[in-house]
Design a protein that fits this description.
The protein has 408 residues and is of the alpha/beta class. It has a domain of 268 residues: Alpha-Beta Barrel (TIM Barrel). 36% of the residues lie in helices and 12% in strands. It contains 16 helices and 11 strands. Strands 1, 2, 3, 4, 5, 6, 7, 8, 9, 10 and 11 form an 11-stranded mixed β-sheet that branches. Helix 5 links the parallel strand 2 and strand 3. Helix 5 packs parallel to helix 6 and helix 6 packs across helix 8. The N and C termini lie far apart (43 Å). Bound molecules: iron/sulfur cluster (SF4). The site of iron/sulfur cluster has 14 residues, from helix 11 and helix 14.
């Protein structure tokens, strides 16, 4: 397809948006529909964007996280799960885990992450992964950097069919990282685990928790990661739940500054960057790309996860706890059902909390009227943990929506 100099590919959501732009002769910008938000006024884009985006995540979750256990030998300062040294006898049994895998397989072709605690604390993890891969699922595992993260464990994970592991690195400096993770030697163990995983053909994602202790060293962390052969850098913006303290959470201006650094790094790093619990990074990218001269705007090079509305709590994303509770996120403590007596897909589709989380027009505060609400919608977990209301405005966003600016 040849595009005029003022046209670009607009991706999956944008067929109606493209027609609209052509009709109104307005610039669409970029290769994702999000940029239409910039080229059009709020009133013009709404009928098209919302019709296209509203039902994208209604049918099934795209990302399913199962907390296999809360047991973990680390003592991370921010631990969501408030991990404990030993397994809870109430955890899902192996038989129940197989049944859960079967119900996940009925959700289509989601990305499935086995997390913890430390998933390697379960001896049946390899059997469960084998069962999942036999069902055609793509499995990623999120092990902790403990003595269990041995070469032999990674070989077993690879043999069972694990495609990717995610490892945590929160600082370029070993001492700062170990201090955050609560165990000396965690940094070196992480790198050893990374090397073994790559030797056994498992791709590696690095997770970095961004908080007040390390937000000024984003460039240093990126520089360290650039030396590694990793598939993706997942940058998690701290949500103050579990052991994480409110004082560690970045404010809106600090968050925006980290966005600025990530955006600059995107074109320089040999791997993709994704944010977690920061959907407003999509808003930031849209604004930056829209501000470029037309010839410099990326046409088709955006990574796929930037072309559609952010997956968020209950919106394309679901969490199952170690005792089978189904929640919109591990950071949002609404228990919407339990896999022991409810169907995962049914709960995801029909529970009123899940449904409302997919309807940003029902949110309160500025997120509910924001022109980026479909694309972003804010972190519902951070809204909940910082205001007590999961549907309130995202506290860490600097953006002033057009509707609010025009009303002043
Ligand atoms: S105001 Fe809310 S919906 Fe709008 S960009 Fe910020 S976080 Fe996203």
């Amino acid at each position: 397809m040849h595009l005029r100099s003022d046209e670009v590919c607009v991706g999956r959501l944008a067929a109606p948006a493209t027609n609209h732009a052509r009709r109104t002769k307005r610039w669409v910008g970029g290769c994702s529909s999000q940029l239409l938000l910039i080229g059009c006024t709020q009133r013009q884009y709404h009928p098209h964007m919302e019709a296209a985006a509203a039902h994208l995540y209604d049918d099934a979750p795209r990302v399913i996280i199962w907390e296999m256990t809360r047991a973990c030998a680390l003592a991370c300062r921010h631990c969501r799960a408030e991990a404990i040294p030993h397994r809870n006898p109430e955890e899902l049994s192996t038989t129940e885990a197989f049944a859960l895998v079967d119900s996940i397989a009925r959700c289509g072709n989601p990305i499935v992450v086995f997390t913890g605690g430390d998933p390697l604390m379960r001896d049946d993890i390899y059997k469960i992964i084998e069962h999942a891969t036999e069902r055609g699922l793509r499995i990623a595992v999120s092990p902790s950097a403990t003595g269990r993260l041995r070469d032999s464990s990674l070989l077993e994970l690879a043999r069972a069919g694990c495609e990717r592991i995610s490892l945590s690195l929160d600082a370029a400096d070993a001492e700062i990282h170990d201090n955050f993770r609560g165990v000396k030697g965690s940094f070196e163990r992480t790198l050893a685990g990374y090397r073994s995983a790559r030797e056994h053909g498992i791709s590696v994602q690095i997770n970095t928790t961004i908080a007040r202790f390390n937000h000024l060293d984003v460039d240093g962390i990126a520089e360290m990661l650039a030396e590694l052969d990793i598939a993706l850098w997942s940058v998690f913006f701290l949500v103050p739940t579990g052991r994480a303290e409110l004082s560690e959470v970045l404010d809106a201006a600090e968050t925006e500054e980290v966005f600025r650094k990530l955006y600059r790094l995107e074109s320089r790093l040999p791997f993709g960057i994704k944010t977690t619990e920061a959907p407003h990074y999509r808003r930031y990218r849209s604004q930056r790309i829209a501000s470029m001269p037309p010839r410099e705007r990326p046409a088709t090079i955006e990574p796929p996860w930037q072309r559609v509305p952010a997956v968020g709590d209950g919106k394309g994303f679901v969490f199952i706890s170690h005792i089978g509770e189904i929640s919109p996120s591990g950071f949002l403590p609404y228990v919407c059902g339990n896999v022991r007596d409810a169907d995962l897909l049914d709960v995801y589709r029909h529970h009123p909390v899940m449904q409302r989380l997919r309807r940003p027009e029902t949110f309160g505060g500025k997120c509910g009227v924001c022109e980026f609400r479909e694309l972003c919608g804010g972190s519902r977990s951070r809204a909940y943990t910082m205001t007590g209301d999961a549907f309130a405005a995202e506290p860490s966003c600097v953006h002033k929506p057009i509707a609010i600016a025009e009303a002043v």
